[in-house]
Amino acid sequence: MADTRTSDNRTLHVVGEDDSRVAANHLVAGAVFLVLGGGLELLSLMSLRFADLFPITYGRLEPMANLTLMIGFVSISLIGGIYYVLPRLTGARLKGSSLAMFELTGIAVLVLVGLLAIGFGFGTGGQPFGLPWWINLPMALLLAVPALVTIGTISDRTENRSYVTLWFVLGGVIWLPLLYLAFFSGDLPSLSSTAVAYTDVFFSAGFVTMFLLTVGTGLFYYTMVRELDVSLASRQLALVGFWSLGFAAVWWGTAQLMFGPGPSYLSGVGAALGLAFPIGALANAANASLTLEGAWDKVRDMPALRSGVLGLYLAVGVAVMAALAGFRSIASVAALTGFWQAIEYTAISGVGTLLIASVSFSAVPRLFGRELYTRRAKPFLTLTLTGSVGVLVFMAASGLVSGYSWIGGSNSGAYVDVGEGWGAGLGESVETMMLIVVGFAIVTFLGQLAYAATVIGTVTQGKAATQEVLVAKDADDE
Asked: Cα-flanking dihedrals φ and ψ of residue 304, to 5°?
């Protein structure tokens, strides 16, 4: 059953200046952090392949890149997208614009301070960030601000029926601070090292499924029906994707520690519930495809729609690989290898960037009154998709080769799989594939530069166009 066209609230004219500024600043700041985080991610992969060339080790560069991309880019950008759609879907002014600006400034400062802390050795060495507690605590508080703003805005809504995007963004902003609190609990001295390891992988997996994909998909649903003025194909499919990603898909994270000292029942639970990841991704991709039926010729000429479609399709591939590796037969090879890093890299730098670009390419022109700077938009799509898929394929393959090599060497007695013998599993074939990975990472970074050039170029060089300013109607006009 088709959903009604409620991508815009009809009690609003073509948002207040403060509301627009908040959303716009988040999207522009996110683009800047993407360049910084993409450069750090590239350096971390290069340090993994050429360990002797870098004064800062992979163990520090990788958490620095994770912090910048996950919090600085993904979180800030998606929060900006949420602030963009909320007034348009609710008919209410953004609740607490000044608080939202404080949240943006606070998160940006904490990310920069965190980079310095990790770089100078004040981090804990954990994953994915390894931040000290005095940064984790205020970060958890600031990440709860979008939930307050969102709930406050929705509580003032004038629209009787909720468009599905509101479910996705409301779930995402509530789950994000809860995930971070679970991750922050790893700093408690009473927790065992095993429990800390599970909080780390639970946060990484939950960030991808419960926040990035959930909010990114919800924002694309809005972008899709807004750009084409069509109805969403199926509200039911959207809700299947929402609940699958929100309450089960996170369990694919435990597969990374399947053969560790944790509870044995987690292997079965993780394998079964991890299947919700591809189910949710497939439901959302299918819903988008059905909605775009008959309009594919328009998609080719609209970077916002192309970005979202490619992001959802790539998410299906990532989800299938993550779910399959949750079964013991594959996990016995993939665990503790570059396979899982390939999954997380592509989820953040590939899927995340494409879904964020979808809402940014649609929102930034309207917020700034400028036409989209398309000179870098098409190269962005090609470079990002090519680079992220290349990293996914070759890094995952290198992880599987390493896993098989370690198992074979250990079983045959050729070498041991602990201590100095651990490195024997990294032969020339793995080194060659990691060199190819670095090449594709460079391609991805060029795509990230193209994204930032598109967003910032729209603000500084885009041709003047009609700026969208929403003003609430007076009661007498309704």
From this structure: -65, -45
Report residue 347 as tokens: 């989820």
CATH number for the domain that contains residue 434: 1.20.210.10
CA distance 197 to 135: 19
Give me 110's structure tokens.
């904490």
Q: Range of 164's domain?
A: 17-466
Per the structure block, which two tokens stand in for 82? Answer: 């949420």
4 within some domain: no
**What is the rounded CA–CA span in Å between residue 370 and residue 362?**
11
Give how many domains the chain has, as a whole number: 1
Does residue 122 lie within any of the structural domains? yes
Residue 471 in domain: no
3-state secondary structure of 60: helix
* pLDDT averaged over 10-residue windows placed end to end, the chain, 478 residues: 43 55 96 97 90 80 96 98 94 92 97 95 86 94 97 86 90 96 84 83 93 97 93 94 89 81 78 91 96 89 95 97 88 84 96 98 93 90 97 93 70 50 59 92 98 95 72 47
Q: Which two tokens stand for residue 56?
A: 């800062």
